[in-house]
Write a structure and sequence with these properties.
Mean pLDDT: 81
Order of helices and strands: HHHEEHHHHH
CATH topology of the largest domain: f41 fragment of flagellin, N-terminal domain
Helix content: 55-70%
Structural class: mainly alpha
Number of helices: 8
Number of strands: 2
Strand order of the largest sheet: 1-2
Largest sheet: 2 strands, antiparallel
CATH superfamily of the largest domain: f41 fragment of flagellin, N-terminal domain
Distance between the termini: 14 Å
Number of domains: 2
């Protein structure tokens, strides 16, 4: 088979272009630091890269949820701890009010006044709002900004807990409702929430004579209220521990996926540098050979 000058020229140019394409490829990799700059570089690795990035995006959202959950749980724990201290003070004052032998009407009224002030402080804590949203911390999923109104009635929601997804298949409740932490008032069942209980104690101390039997019963109810607060704190603590575990897992998973993404996309600089050097030598050699071989004459064009 006869090889014409045109065929030889076309073959040489194709080879030179292939060398130039490879040279450009490694130049781009070193300049961008990435192996994958477009899907055609490696469809398989591009697909893996997209899946890995999707996983990282999910982990980023879960990390934000974990941060929010931690803030809510810490805020709830702090509020409940403060409420415990106030209840302890109410217990001290109630016990003092029971000592009718040393208290006159004026002393009992002063105790009642302090109890009323403590009740207002308690309501303020119960209406603590989440800093990031302005929603009531103990109100559940509710449109308003308070869990308890001015009269002390619960206006929050019990049916819709506040949850956060902290893992691929794990969600956790990050709130405690007011009824869970502070009890409920039910005239039929004869139960009172913490605020109604303190209000009743103050009212008994303002009567003459002081209702000793009623105060004794209220003192026992205060112990029950404190147990309820402790149970709510324990629940918050257990959830906080789960969130901490999820945070550690999220960090580990993020590091793993980031490393996987780097192995797929990031260029191996030493290897790419050697390849670039080799391609440069090959390209220069191809140009040199072509310049010597491709020396057409007038007879070549006449062919």
């Amino acid at each position: 088979m006869r090889i014409t000058q045109r065929a030889l020229t076309a073959s040489s140019i194709t080879g030179i272009n292939n060398n130039l394409s490879a040279l450009t490829k490694y130049q781009n990799q070193l300049s961008t630091g990435k192996v994958l700059t477009k899907p055609s570089d490696s469809p398989t690795d591009t697909n893996k890269s997209m899946q890995t990035r999707s996983g990282l995006a999910a982990l980023a959202q879960q990390a934000r949820n974990i941060t929010d959950a931690t803030a809510r749980l810490d805020q709830a724990d702090s509020a409940l701890e403060t409420m415990q201290e106030l209840v302890q003070r109410v217990q001290v004052l109630t016990t003092k009010g029971l000592n009718t032998g040393s208290n006159d009407a004026t002393s009992s009224a002063a105790i009642a006044t302090e109890l009323s002030a403590l009740r207002e402080s308690m309501l303020g804590i119960a209406n603590t709002t989440v800093a990031s949203t302005g929603q009531p911390l103990f109100g559940g999923v509710v449109a308003g900004t308070v869990a308890y109104d001015a009269s002390g009635a619960y206006v929050g929601s019990d049916g819709y807990p506040v949850t956060r997804r902290i893992g691929a298949s794990e969600s956790i409740q990050v709130d405690v409702t007011g009824t869970q932490a502070f009890g409920t008032t039910d005239t039929t069942a004869g139960t009172k929430d913490l605020f109604a209980l303190v209000q009743g104690i103050a009212a008994k101390l303002n009567t003459s004579p002081v209702d000793v039997a009623g105060l004794s019963a209220d003192l026992a109810s205060l112990s029950d209220a404190q147990d309820r607060l402790s149970a709510a704190q324990s629940l918050i603590g257990a959830r906080a521990a789960r969130v901490d575990d999820a945070s550690s897992l999220n960090t580990d998973r993020n590091l793993t996926l980031t490393a996987q993404l780097g192995s797929l996309e990031n260029v191996d600089i030493p290897r790419a540098t050697l390849e670039l050097s080799a391609q440069q030598v090959g390209y220069q050699a191809a140009l040199s050979v072509a310049s010597k071989v491709l020396q057409p004459t007038l007879m070549d064009f006449l062919n």
